[in-house]
Amino acid sequence: MILEIVAVTGGLGLLIAGLGMAILRLLRGRSIGVMLAVVAVVTVAATLAGVVAITIEMIIDGHPKNVVLTVVAVAGLVGLGVALAVARQVVAASRKLVAAVEAVTASRDYIPPAGPLPAELTTISEALDQAYGRLREGRERERALEGARRELVAWVSHDLRTPLAGMRAMVEALEDGVVADAGTVRRYHNQIRHEVDRLSHMVDDLFELSRIHAGTLRLSPRRVGVGDLVADALAGVEALAKAKGVRLTGEAGHVLPVYADADELGRALRNLVVNAIRHTPEDGAVVVRVEADERIVRLSVADCCGGIPEEDLARVFDVAFRGEAARTPGPDGGAGLGLAIARGIVEAHEGAIDVVNEGPGCRFEIRLPISEAAT
């Protein structure tokens, strides 16, 4: 008898459950309240199916049967009422969350709904807050990048126009025969070649910076000896230092190799040294040091520039920042892109770069991780 009741009750329960799942599948795009109501109805129907099975077997009859059916019916109505109340709360909380999202505008940030929310909706609200925070940071970076681009166009337009105007004047003088003596002609030719080399260097810097900003800088990392990197950088700028009357010093002890693109990282270090030479007065010194611990290699470039104003320290690596009001490039042809390029290259290596005032000048420092591949 018991097995027969269990079989009938289980069969009816499975049938009702299957019907309920089919209804929920059809209503999966509807309100949560409707779904909870369906769940409550399915629960009551399954319970009634069990009572019906018992009644069919004549275990309960007469007045007891009516009492059982009444109790089950009342319990079902109570369950349905509770389900509808919970559904209203969930729907109200969902609408509050939707209203908070719809209130977000370009001038207004996301404000989480007031009052408690169900745990799942609270998690969604926190995730939305974080997502909108990242979007806000992205917009701020985009605005800063757009401002830097406009500033770059203004600076480079000026820096290109000045040497082009000088070359045009010299070319016209040579073409018109205004300059005829061999010494002046040779000087004009040398000056034109110098300006062409300077413009070519500026174009190379612009191309490198555009690759960094576009995220298309491709690195070819391999084991690189930091001491060799410093030696190559100093050798490449030795002539510039002698012409300026600046002493160059390199201090590199036994340091583990780093896993990096030697050409790009060498360019970043060379840009820092050239910048230091450019701002160090005659008879000053530029010192390049290499230090390391178990996890990080530090390459520092110290100069005698007299220091950088505190309000400018945060802008040193910005595009076209020269630390001076005059836009006219110096004799070395700097376009204000070297430090921005150095930062992009270092960050592409998952490193960091910063600057602090120290001693008679300032100290730029590159920090690179010692990867397992390098060790």
By DSSP, the count of extended strands is 7
CATH structural class of the largest domain: Alpha Beta
Structural class determined from secondary elements: alpha+beta
Write down the secondary-structure element order. Answer: HHHHHEHEEHEEHEE
CATH superfamily of the largest domain: Histidine kinase-like ATPase, C-terminal domain
Helix content: 55-70%
Number of helical segments with 4 or more residues: 8
Oligomer: single chain
CATH architecture of the largest domain: 2-Layer Sandwich
Instruction: List the domain count as a whole number.
Output: 3
Rounded to the nearest angstrom, the distance between the terminal CA atoms is 77 Å
CATH topology of the largest domain: Heat Shock Protein 90
Uncertain parts? 325-331
